[in-house]
Write a structure and sequence with these properties.
heterodimer; A: alpha+beta; 8 helices; B: mainly alpha; 12 helices; 4Fe4S_Fe_S_CS (chain A); ubiquinone (chain A)
């Protein structure tokens, strides 16, 4: 019970009057664009250069809205006398946003950081068929993917960066070694080869850090 | 001839007020309610802060089909909006705005006329509720009837107290007899009158007869298009009339600094302030339950009104 009978009524009136004097919280959307955080689930962008047609996204998709076609190409051996390798080439990659439920599992599951969230959301269509975004349109969304937010000040270094840095350090050490002694230097250079491989892979795609794509 | 033109001009003035003021109150309600809830309200209609929203609403209502339910009592159903709306137009004629005959028609028994005619307005809701052949409408209509029974009495008692104090039933006469100390003297009566008036208009928090979460829209459930718009207009015209009457009876009408020149402005300002309070109450308070509503009228308002009459009588006897 309130100490003074009726004080609750006065309090109610005070609340509404106070709210009236404050600025309203309405976002005037079509006139003013909303400020959306990075990784907002607006639309899914495809960085097709990273896609290996592993089909994981299409298989994990709960409502089967991802369509992938591909064919195999044979790549001649890298070194003379080697074996021919086969490689998957992407023919079609499409996401039907009329079916998509924006769960983000495809982005989560992509091991090659080929899929990203973009905050763009204004892609309504008058024909439902136009909601199926083909490969080129998905690639265009890639330009709208914002840079991921910076890590916390004391956060752990991302694995990719750590690997790249380690490789670079080793290479630098190897270069220093080869400068002083030739015999051991060549042996070390061979050993750093496999280690250095994550380096180029870890380079961020246009506008996005790959370490953020799956998280 | 001069007299005829005079009457015509006065009636035209009343009609203009009747058509414009409810819209102003409605637009104010849109905006004030929105800002009290942290919103903006209408922003597009008319270009500048949605000033033409109610005009747009009117156009929309005019375009809609006028449906009469198959089992409805056609004549009564179609007549109900007019019965709900016209009394407020008639009441406006008798409300004085400024001194020296700034009134539609100076009636000797103005207070009596005003209260009697305002009571008719509720009949519109009753007719609508009965004629719609819809159980929700019927429930709403009966609730309206119960509310009318309960709240007409304290309203009349509070008005009677003012009439006792002024010694006249003429509305300009009551304002003419006003002194500043009347407002504290009749404060309780004023609060009772205003509250009971709100209940009669079925404004929140007394909107049980149209409680949309229970009985859709009460007596107005089956109405569409223009007839529905007329019911809404009646509600807002009722706000104008109630606030005007409260101003005239309890807040001294045109009394205020420079009353001789801008007295009418004082009446309008006080009316507008009360209209704001009506909106404010609607935003702030939840709806009273039907039993709470009845209990509030019979156990709070009527005793308060009776006490006010006793106080008025005592002061009147002592001072005379």
């Amino acid at each position: 019970m309130s100490p003074v009978p009726g004080s609750g009524l006065a309090k109610g009136l005070a609340v509404t009057l106070k709210t009236m004097t404050k600025r309203s919280v309405t976002a005037q959307y079509p006139d003013a664009q909303p400020e959306l955080p990075p990784r907002t689930r607006g639309v899914i962008a495809l960085f097709e250069e990273n896609c290996t047609v592993c089909m994981l996204c299409a298989r994990e998709c709960p409502d089967w809205c991802i369509y992938i076609d591909s064919h195999k190409e044979t790549v001649p051996p890298a070194a003379p006398g080697g074996r021919e390798r086969s490689r998957n080439v992407l023919d079609r990659f499409a996401i039907d946003f009329a079916l998509c439920m924006y769960c983000g599992i495809c982005i989560e599951v992509c091991p090659f950081d080929a899929l990203f969230w973009s905050p763009e959301f204004e892609y309504a269509e008058t024909d439902i068929l136009d909601l199926t975004h083909e490969r080129d349109r998905l690639r265009e969304w890639m330009w709208t993917v914002p840079a991921p937010p910076a890590l916390d000040p004391a956060a752990e270094e991302p694995k990719e960066l750590a690997a790249a840095r380690k490789a670079a350090e080793k290479a630098a050490a190897a270069a220093a070694d080869s400068g002083s002694g030739s015999g051991s230097g060549s042996g070390q250079a061979g050993a750093t080869g496999p280690d250095a491989e994550p380096g180029p892979d870890a380079e961020p795609g246009p506008g996005a850090g790959p370490e953020e794509g799956g998280s | 001839m001069n007299g005829t033109i005079d009457v015509l001009l006065r009636l035209l003035g009343v009609l203009v007020v009747f058509l414009v003021f409810p819209l102003l109150v409605g637009q104010t309600e849109h905006k004030v309610m929105a800002h009290m809830q942290g919103r903006l309200g209408p922003m597009y209609a008319g270009g500048f802060h949605g000033w033409a929203q109610l005009v747009a609403d009117g156009v929309k209502f005019a375009q809609k089909e006028d449906v009469v339910p198959a089992d409805a009592d056609r004549t009564v159903f179609q007549l109900a909006p007019a019965v709900a709306l016209l009394p407020y137009l008639l009441v406006l004629v008798a409300i004085p705005v400024g001194p020296h005959g700034f009134v539609g028609q100076n009636l000797d028994a103005g207070l009596f006329f005003v209260l009697a005619v305002m009571g008719v307005g509720v009949l519109g809701s009753l007719m609508a509720g009965w004629a719609s052949s819809n159980k929700y409408s019927l429930l709403g209509g009966l609730r309206t009837a119960a509310q009318l029974m309960a709240y007409e009495l304290p309203m009349l008692l509070a008005a009677a107290s003012v009439a006792m104090a002024a010694g006249t039933l003429s509305l300009p006469g009551i304002v003419g007899a006003y002194h500043w100390w009347w407002t504290p003297w009749q404060l309780v009566g004023g609060v009772v009158f205003f509250t009971a008036g709100l209940a009669e208009l079925q404004r929140p928090p007394f909107d049980m007869p149209v409680a949309d979460s229970e009985i859709i829209f009460g007596a107005y459930t089956e109405y569409t298009g223009l007839r529905f718009a007329l019911f809404l207009l009646a509600e807002y015209a009722g706000i104008v009339v109630l606030c005007g009457l409260t101003t005239v009876l309890f807040l001294g009408g045109w009394h205020g600094p420079w009353a001789g020149g801008v007295g009418w402005l004082w009446t309008l300002a006080k009316t507008a302030l009360l209209a704001f309070v009506v909106i404010w109450l609607r935003v702030s308070y939840p709806r009273l339950r039907e039993d709470q509503l009845q209990k509030f009228a019979w156990t709070v308002l009527i005793p308060l009104a009776l006490a006010q009459i006793a106080l008025t009588g005592v002061v009147k006897v002592v001072t005379s």
